Amino acid sequence: MSPSDVPASPVPEGRTPAVRPSALTSLALLDDLDQHPPEGPGADAADRLLLDTAAAWWTAGHPRDAVAVADDRWGALTLSLLAAPPELRPLTLRTGQDARSGELAAQANAVRHGLTDSLQALPRTCGVTEELVAGARTVLMPLPRALETLQDWTWLVAEHAADDVVLLAGGRDKHMTRSMNEVLAACFTDVVPGRGRGKARVLTARGPRRGRTAPFPRRQDHSGVSDLGLPPPLTLHAQGAVYGGTSLDPGTRLMLSTLADGSAEALPSADGTLLDLGCGNGTIAVWAALRDPDLQVTAVDQSASAVASTRLSAEAAGVADRVRTVRDDGLSRWPDGSVSTILLNPPFHRGNAVDPTVAHRLIAEAGRVLAPGGHLVCVWNSHLRHRPVLERRVGPTRQLARNPTFTVTESTRRR
């Protein structure tokens, strides 16, 4: 479509419509949403401002068809649009979330507010993908904390959405930086920061720049991996939302070099299978499959980006036939006592804050699904002192390695 064919916008370039409280944010459901696992209120000031900004655009005359919600963290945006009055309800709506926990939170909140059938009827994608944003005319997106994630998803919108797309990206002021404006400006000709409200702000982007090279997935060849018992290079892939990108995580490296020297009882696996919990870019899963050509590996992560990245890393290493990827919240699909060997490098943060909560939950999940006598090898930041949790949730735990930053332990499930 040539520039002259793009539908005329009701709002001139460089401006946005005046944003006021709308019927979308007067809905009672916004005051009764939970995260998953339940940890606090599920709607924040950024969600509310995003909804009111979308309402302002639609009231000004921007079309309400082909609306996409990208990475709605707990359903605040999607459920509000489903429950909206007719004059503000999208004519067509689709949604996609990177984190499985976000999907589960949205489903639970839909049950609470009688919107289960409406949510299930929506077109949904596993992650933020081309399919989600293709032809979209309005995209609502909470701003991700990582610039790499924003770069990846912004490119997808600019490349595949409609020519007259309005991208609304909202976040809390304390998490926003000028670099976010620059990322959006690289993909759109018109980027306007909206007025702040409730310590939140929405960035509006229009005029997609087409034909730019996709920034993700990225790949990196790692030489000098002889301490891992592998010939170089080890090639890792990552989409934008994968923590650590294509790097060889130093904690993972310590764990794998420790396993390579035969310090653990966990390998070789008793039944020829191994589970990599929280697979990220696939380092652990690919390493295990390369080290043992008879091993069947299952790589699990709640992030759709991580699962896709692990799959790419396995394909690059020629082991995709022995690395199965699964997107799951913890290990909800596995019955108790069903796995003999688990390797785990748990996250130590939630957003920008150090938080052991997720690690403790994954350790508990590992303890639940390990068979009696099964092994969990875990690497963790030493200052977090996970050993008492490992002893309590899994079983007897011994230290395999330690350096100034990380500790590697092996826990054996009680018989």
Automatic annotation (TrEMBL):
SUPFAM superfamilies from the UniProt entry: S-adenosyl-L-methionine-dependent methyltransferases (SSF53335)
Family matches, as PROSITE patterns: N6_MTASE
UniProt-listed Gene3D superfamilies: Vaccinia Virus protein VP39
Coiled-coil residue windows: none
GO biological process: methylation
Region (Disordered): 1-20, 208-231
GO MF terms, alphabetically ordered: methyltransferase activity
Domain of life: Bacteria
Start and end residues of each Methyltransferase small domain: 234-409
Annotated keywords: Cytoplasm, Methyltransferase, rRNA processing, Transferase
Alphabetical list of CDD domains matching this protein: AdoMet_MTases (cd02440)
UniProt keyword Transmembrane, yes or no: no
The UniProt record lists the keyword Methyltransferase: yes
Domain called RlmG N-terminal: residue spans: 44-206
Record protein name field: Methyltransferase
Organism: Nesterenkonia aethiopica
Lineage: Bacteria, Bacillati, Actinomycetota, Actinomycetes, Micrococcales
